[in-house]
Amino acid sequence: MTMAPQDRLIVALDVPTRADADALATSLDDEVRWFKIGLELYSSEGPELVRDFVRAGRRVFVDLKLHDIPATVGRATTRLAGLGAGLLSLHAAGGKAMMEAAVKAAAEGAGDGERLKILAVTVLTSLEQSDLGDVGIHKPIRELVVQRAQLAATAGCDGVVASPHEAAALREALPEDFLIVTPGVRPEGADFGDQKRVMTPGQARAAGADMIVVGRPVRDAESPLAAAKAIAGELRV
Ligand code: C5P
């Protein structure tokens, strides 16, 4: 998908408080447009932080991975769209009707601003085949990822969150304008942390990722700005 290179990087604000989030985001504002507010930060600072980030001209990915009955997910999506967030995640495992409810709420909640885009998580990258077996799912993970991504596209979602190792297969199986967003990205030489199967930003992009999510390699760098610049440099293709 055609996109400005700066729009391809999302920095995960995996920090506990508003003070930490403000400090990190402010240090990155010259280079980074997108910030991901996940369960930790949303649980401590909530909607007000999203609103304030949007007011400050930042774009926000609310990574709440919703999974509930369609009515509840639809209503929550209406609220999140009203905050001005640009991206929201949900679990494709919640089913087609649940995803459709979110897509509809996002379309209706757009107002004058840009519409909230819905991203589906196919299979959590923390799960292995045996974990799926434990919850009664016996399909090979790769097939399940593609099946759920295709369901998400049919339901009207804007994209998926996936491992960079799944990006190429997904790119082939999905419409061209369907967003592939990949965490699990590490610049050359960086600490892997608990991410096991990583790619560099450039490799992820070459594999078909439209946007990448990076957390610790930026947050924990001596200079987060320099780290973000180096990563963004790899995405200018
Ligand atoms: O620090 P790191 O770059 O590993 O952070 C990646 C971010 O992406 C974290 O916020 C993590 O919760 C998120 N994420 C992930 N794997 C997924 C979905 C989200 O690592 N499958």
Q: Which terms summarize this structure?
A:
8 strands; binds cytidine-5'-monophosphate; 10 helices; single chain; 237 residues; TIM Barrel
Short description:
This protein is of the alpha/beta class and about 240 residues long. It has helices at about 20-30, 40-55, 70-80, 95-110, 130-135, 140-155, 165-175, 200-205, 215-220, 225-235, and strands spanning about 10, 35-40, 60-65, 85-90, 115-120, 160, 180, 210-215. The chain has a single domain (about 5-235), classed as TIM Barrel (Alpha-Beta Barrel).
Summarize the structure in words:
With about 240 residues, the protein is of the alpha/beta class. The protein has a single domain, classed as TIM Barrel. It has 10 helices and 8 strands. β2 (about 35-40), α2 and β3 form a beta-alpha-beta unit. α6 packs across α7 (about 165-175). Bound molecules: cytidine-5'-monophosphate. Cytidine-5'-monophosphate binds next to β8 and α9.
